[in-house]
């Protein structure tokens, strides 16, 4: 099994990943919408 330290490190990495995802997904969606509008 994982030690407590490994689990804390994994949770921190996961929180950073989710935080980044919360910002990057909407930004990518806006960028894609802009490109689609520009092409059409």
Could you explain the architecture of this structure?
By secondary structure, the chain is mainly α. It has one helix at 4-39. The longest helix has 36 residues, at 4-39. The chain is rod-shaped. It starts with a helix and ends with a helix. The model has no long low-confidence stretch (mean pLDDT 91).
- Summarize the helix and strand pattern as letters: H
The number of strands is: 0
Termini separation (Å)? Answer: 54 Å
Question: Number of DSSP helices?
Answer: 1
Helix share bin: over 70%
Indicate the low-confidence ranges by residue numbers.
none
Shape: rod-shaped
Outline the biggest β-sheet.
Answer: none
Descriptive key words:
single chain, 40 residues, mainly alpha, 1 helix, rod-shaped
In brief:
By secondary structure, the chain is mainly alpha-helical. It has one helix at residues 4-39.
What is this structure's SSE topology?
Elements: H1 4-39
């Amino acid at each position: 099994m994982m030690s407590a330290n490994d689990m804390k490190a994994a949770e921190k990495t996961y929180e950073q990943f989710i935080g980044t995802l919360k910002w990057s997904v909407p930004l990518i969606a806006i960028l894609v919408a802009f490109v689609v509008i520009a092409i059409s």
